[in-house]
């Protein structure tokens, strides 16, 4: 009897222990599936700027460093090693086509060809020209025009006592202020020349306008604006009195009696014709 009781107790303890382990597994993973450890994301080396690199400066190994980057997020045109970007001959180093900031990923689209000379020419679009305009603090918007801005160009002419002004070019991109062509410049500079990007035809107009009078720049808004042709403004227009408004009595015009048309006949005698009104 005692042996039977002992056996029943032993079986009960075993069942209880099994139930505890089953409950632990169920609470730890309700789906009953084994928990898999997350996969470690793959990374690769990528070349970034170790310090700021100005426009036109050569990109040498001293200005570069590498950083771990997710392999699936590597930008197009990035370099995975410094040796792939910089050669043994320092004179053949690529140059920055734009300003590169510290920590920025180095992309092939922002670099010149090996040994290529970088000037303002690289900023010009297809079939465009760079042309300088003589300005001062007043005609250049107080020095607030910077590379990358868009402006309208106005011509002011004086002839005796008469003056006139008109907009000759609209939506023109500024690519240089004096010898500064870096578009990240945000400090006002009182310049003596502003270089703009124009088409060949616009360049001819601009050259003639500089000889014909004084050029002024107006800074455009960042929002897109539909350009329209503007009329010339003369000095007399500033003081011209507005035309008086004529009030028209529409009701009187509507109610005005209409004279009835009298009947008539046409009498022809040979080559002569006569119209006779009938009473």
From TrEMBL:
A Pfam entry, by short name: SAF
InterPro entries according to UniProt: Pilus_assmbl_Flp-typ_CpaB (IPR017592), RcpC_dom (IPR031571), SAF (IPR013974)
Chain intervals for the UniProt region annotation (Disordered): 257-279
Record domain SAF: where: 44-112
The protein's name: SAF domain-containing protein
